Amino acid sequence: MKKLLKYKKVFLGFSLILTLISAAAVAYFGFKPGIDFTSGSLWQVIIPETSVDELKGFLADGLGLNEVNISSEEGQIYTLTMREISDGERQEMLTALKLRFGESTQEQDFWSVSPTVSKELRTKAWWAIGLVLLSISLYIAFAFRKVSDPVSSWKYGLITLITLSHDVLLPAGLFALLGAYKGVTVDTNFMVALLVVMGFSVHDTIVVFDRIRENLVKWEKRFDLEELIDRSIAETIARSINTSITLIFVLVAIYVWGPLNLKFFILAILVGTIAGTYSSIFIASPLLLLAGKEKRK
User: Fold this and answer.
1) In whole angstroms, what is the distance from residue 67 CA to residue 77 CA?
2) H or E segment at 79?
3) For residue 283, which of 174, 181, 169 has the smallest C-alpha distance?
4) What domains appear along the chain, each with residue ranges and CATH number?
5) For FRET with 270, which of 102, 198, 278, 289 sits at 20 to 30 Å CA-CA?
6) Tens-place pLDDT, residues 216-261
7) Which segments cross the bilayer (predicted)?
8) What is the 3-state secondary structure (H, E, C) of 196-222?
């Protein structure tokens, strides 16, 4: 049986570096909020045989819309994010687009968010993230209350909170960088992705913790804590990695071949899934060992 915990300083150091980089990116760049959080309109149109530059030039010169973010899919489906426009303005714009680019121009989707709704969505989204983190940590502390030696049950909850924060912070840092350099926005889909990541990550962490709990009851007098945790990791690592790889294959397929409006949602889940798999094994377990040694001291 390979002893992974002898490299615990490497694992924790690597995670600390990534976490600090992500935190610095979020603090320095912040997020570029989407229309869910700032109000505005999202309009998806099909315009064959044109380019992003041609469309952007016409919107600016012909319609006076300078502040428009445009993304394209398959060279003919364009997603326009702009200030909030009325239904009448949209119809006028559609008529103008058909005159400029031909009758094959079609509207595919349209929706708007008012300033009041966007403010409420933003507030509730951040509250949801915080409450889920706290609730999961408290539940883990309660679930492991009967295993208080050599690690107090509340430390299981605290370590879970640390690992979940790590798993959320890495995709958050990535999106802060993408927002600064690629104009990628953060919306409610991103918040949902973070919640999905937390749910997957805590499941993986509980699998490892539960095996450690079983081995503590079964082998505590035969092995020391480090050997018990190493044994528990060896018994669960194949399951954790295989489950994660299966999900990662699906996410990569959706990211590459899926619709444009889901790409960054899937990217957030993909990065969080990889971070969660790593943290469950290489962060939670070493921290549990350190907590046990500190108590014995």
Assistant:
1) 19
2) strand 77-82
3) 169
4) 4-35+116-296 (1.20.1640.10), 40-113 (3.30.70.3400)
5) 289
6) 777 666 667 788 888 888 888 888 888 889 999 999 999 988 877 7
7) 125-144, 156-178, 190-209, 241-258, 264-291
8) HHHHHHHHHHHHHHHHHHHHHHHHCCC
